[in-house]
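Example S7 (structure tokens).
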């Protein structure tokens, strides 16, 4: 990572607004800023939920569905094929795993998008197993858990693109995501994959200030697929600009967070109910790398008669990403580890994301690194929409190498060149700071090692509390995280990066 004299930086504002995924110091709860003024009184949606119909549940033997082991396309990739995904289906629809994209009866236009534009060769395991479930009538609901970076986006994007009737010029598929960044990213994947299909799509996210136009002044949405954040989608629906009577696929990306009490549960359920009320049959697809027991139970109640794919939490950590912990005596030494031990090892490392817990922490670390002459950018929820978009674009275009982020980018953010994640602060639960947030931890470290690539994670620990949090995370995933012997030893860090396959 190049040292520069004129450090370029987007100064993080001091504005103390709060939104999901990043907190101002000691903020107790989270919610996307755009959702702050609910028009309707808060209702308990869980009470309206119908009891799940416990139809004949059959466990599929996923090993029998194994993809034939073709030659590996790239020997440096540990393709995420050997992951252990368990399937539970309801009813008696038979599903066969797809070993090629041709097996899925996709249109020639979609196959072209997959092979030519996406440059994919064959489906990953989650794609092979979930796509037949998504694309086979009677189009059952699906709750699908699979590892970070294993290609879940393709599952629901192909699901949406395949179900759209090109002759109906109205929204037919809706995908809801927790952040604008993820909505934009998913729309980009959809547009690339669906390039030859002529299917139209639109992003429903808060408008940036320069292009602002009141929703009431806009024509009704005719795009066949809409991807957005819950607040904006709800707003468009309430304003009757987004009609949902033709919607036949509803996707929740990062679904556990979309349905969590401290996430977007109310909005998600409201949107789901409205669609179920007005549209004849809508298939609900829920995707995430994590579904804790509470969310899993809740999902079983709201989304009735669904097929399921899931992974044990002990098997969720990516083997291709090596995790380390480093004891640092004080805060300055954490900055020095980043600067002298990690950045000094130079360009070989690819891109890096440094996660911090609070906006204050983000601003402080940003300033420390810029003062030391490093070029870093920082993203957090208090930035203006257009600045957020610009910072993400620069990072995705490879113009910046190091990005400091709050948990705004912890989930879903896909940049294959990221092979290093640094946890400057460990993630903790909003309501109890002495408990680690193991799900956020897993999502953060999953920003490295996309689709089987190699990666390393450094957890910087400073206090006994940090060590306790780390131990709890280790226990949760039943895995031992390797200690870097000395924060001050260049050799130790070199060794760690070598062992991770990065040097
Ligand atoms: P996640 O499961 O975490 O949502 P993504 O859908 O973001 O993962 O995919 C991770 C990366 O893997 C993306 O960069 C995507 O382009 C790539 N990818 C997905 N499916 C395939 C495939 N079948 N072949 C090659 N690369 C793929
Ligand atoms: Mg994803």
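Recovered sequence:
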């Amino acid at each position: 990572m190049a040292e520069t004299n004129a450090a370029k930086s987007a100064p993080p504002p001091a504005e103390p607004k709060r939104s999901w995924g990043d907190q101002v110091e000691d903020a107790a709860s989270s919610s996307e800023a755009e959702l702050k003024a609910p028009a309707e009184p808060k209702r308990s949606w869980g009470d309206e939920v119908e009891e799940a119909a416990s139809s004949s549940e059959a466990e599929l033997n996923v090993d029998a569905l194994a993809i034939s082991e073709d030659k590996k396309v790239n020997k440096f990739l540990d393709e995420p094929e050997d992951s252990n995904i368990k399937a539970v289906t309801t009813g008696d629809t038979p599903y066969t795993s797809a070993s090629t994209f041709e097996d899925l009866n996709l249109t020639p236009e979609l196959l072209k998008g997959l092979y030519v534009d996406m440059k994919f060769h064959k489906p990953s395991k989650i794609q092979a197993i979930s796509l037949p479930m998504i694309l086979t009538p009677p189009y059952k609901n699906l709750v699908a858990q699979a590892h970070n970076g294993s290609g879940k986006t393709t599952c629901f994007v192909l699901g949406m693109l395949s179900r759209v009737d090109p002759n109906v010029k109205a929204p037919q598929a809706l995908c809801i995501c927790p952040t604008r960044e993820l909505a934009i990213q998913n729309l980009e994947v959809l547009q690339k994959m669906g390039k030859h299909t002529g299917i139209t799509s639109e992003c429903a996210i808060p408008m940036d200030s320069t292009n602002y136009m009141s929703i009431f002044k806009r024509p009704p949405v005719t795009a066949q697929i809409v991807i957005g954040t819950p607040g904006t989608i709800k707003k468009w629906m309430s304003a009757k600009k987004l009609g949902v009577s033709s919607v036949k696929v509803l996707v929740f990306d990062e679904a556990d967070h979309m349905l969590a009490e401290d996430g977007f549960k109310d909005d998600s359920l409201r949107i789901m109910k409205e669609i179920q009320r007005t549209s004849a049959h809508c298939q609900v697809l829920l995707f995430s790398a994590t579904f804790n027991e509470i969310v899993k139970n809740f999902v079983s109640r709201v989304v009735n008669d669904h097929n399921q794919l899931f992974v044990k939490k002990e098997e969720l950590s990516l083997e291709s990403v090596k995790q380390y912990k480093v004891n640092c005596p004080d805060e300055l030494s954490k900055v020095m580890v980043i600067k002298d031990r990690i950045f000094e090892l130079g360009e070989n490392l690819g891109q890096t994301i440094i996660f911090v817990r609070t906006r204050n922490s983000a601003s402080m670390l940003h300033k420390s690194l810029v003062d030391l002459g490093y070029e870093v950018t920082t993203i957090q929820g208090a930035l203006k929409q257009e600045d957020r978009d610009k910072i993400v674009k620069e990072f995705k275009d490879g113009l910046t190498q190091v990005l400091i982020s709050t948990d705004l980018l912890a989930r879903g953010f896909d940049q294959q060149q990221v092979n290093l994640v640094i946890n400057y602060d460990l993630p903790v639960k909003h309501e109890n700071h002495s408990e680690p947030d193991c799900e956020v931890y897993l999502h953060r470290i999953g920003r490295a090692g996309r689709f089987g690539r190699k990666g390393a994670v450094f957890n910087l620990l400073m206090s006994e509390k940090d060590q306790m949090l780390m131990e709890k995370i280790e226990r949760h995933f039943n895995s031992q995280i390797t200690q870097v012997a000395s924060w001050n030893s260049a050799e130790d860090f070199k060794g760690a990066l070598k062992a991770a396959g990065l040097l």
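Notes on this example. Residues 5-55+316-499 form a domain with the Rossmann fold fold (CATH 3.40.50.300).
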